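Give me the fold.
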Amino acid sequence: MQSVLGEIAKLRPGIPVDIDCHNSNRYRLVVREKDGSRTAYYFSMPIYNIKTRKIVDVRFHLNGQSICATGSNTDIILNDYIFMENTEGVFSMRLHEKPVMFSPNEVQYGFNRVYPTTNGVAVKCDVKKNESNSFIIETGKSHLNIRANDRCFALMQEEFRPFVVVSCMGSTDETGSVISPAKLDYQKIDDKKYSISLYSTNSLAQYVLFEVNMYEKKIFQDTTVESANPFTNNAFGGVGFIGNSSEYGEQWLYSRIDFSRIPEVFDRYVNRVVLQIPKLNQNNVEISGFKVLARFCSFGSNWNNKIADGDCTAQSITSNFYHSMDITSLLRDIRTKTIVPSEGLILKSKIKGSGFSVIATGDSYYTPQILEINYR
């Protein structure tokens, strides 16, 4: 994502964006429509800085000898290290190179390229199959608990709240399309320092893409579950390979909205609700959304204990950038046309065995999901 307004422009090509400035919710931008309605675009992560209340400028800037960016609650400085700081503490990452090239959208560290996210950075490494790229991370806090799998590493501030998260997005081809998973492992060096190694799983891949962010509470509570790793939970992973893949078998995404973060629309007459899911690969495998029959736990769910699905309630419409899923029937009361809470959706491939679609989950700060609600 290069800008908040740029993403919204992708969702409404050719339609002017008339911003309604009477908004106090850090997760959303509201647009006035010609018919008198409003469209709220709720991003999965905050898009306004917590101090300035301005929209996050997803760009790098020069400040003396350092390169800087400002996230939703984090200040980011790039020099020999990538340094992040917010009111919760400090964090640094060293890529073993120094910055050699700068632009507002990209900083090059040797063969590594760094991009801004809404509250951290994404990194593209030149990594081939059977090779690895390792780097050192360090926090200002000691004895943080770890929650990790082979694609995500989180240092936990509290039992269910991370301090910082490192998450693989995948192995990409030359165009940046994700063609297979990327793998991660870690080694503890001391109470504040860890070595993280990333691997590609595909001989055709040119790069490994991952993101590193300091935590903000999110709108979507979700996790992937998969048949090939039936006990694996992925509550903080930023990507899903929905459908069938050799690495994960059949993978689903369980997703639920935290309705406490969208209070402004509860008493409104709702015309439509569309879930906009960033698409990270180039194939057109379509996704179906099924009702969840009971409440699921995003921190404890896996393939073996997964909650059953109900009726199919939505089908994706695929563009170059997003899977768009109209979920109005799931979230709108038939009689009052107002928002009603739901236990959520299970996302699966529309046709079993048709391959997989790589999507961003609700934990991605680099490519956030967007909940689009049009109301009066």
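The mean pLDDT is 95.
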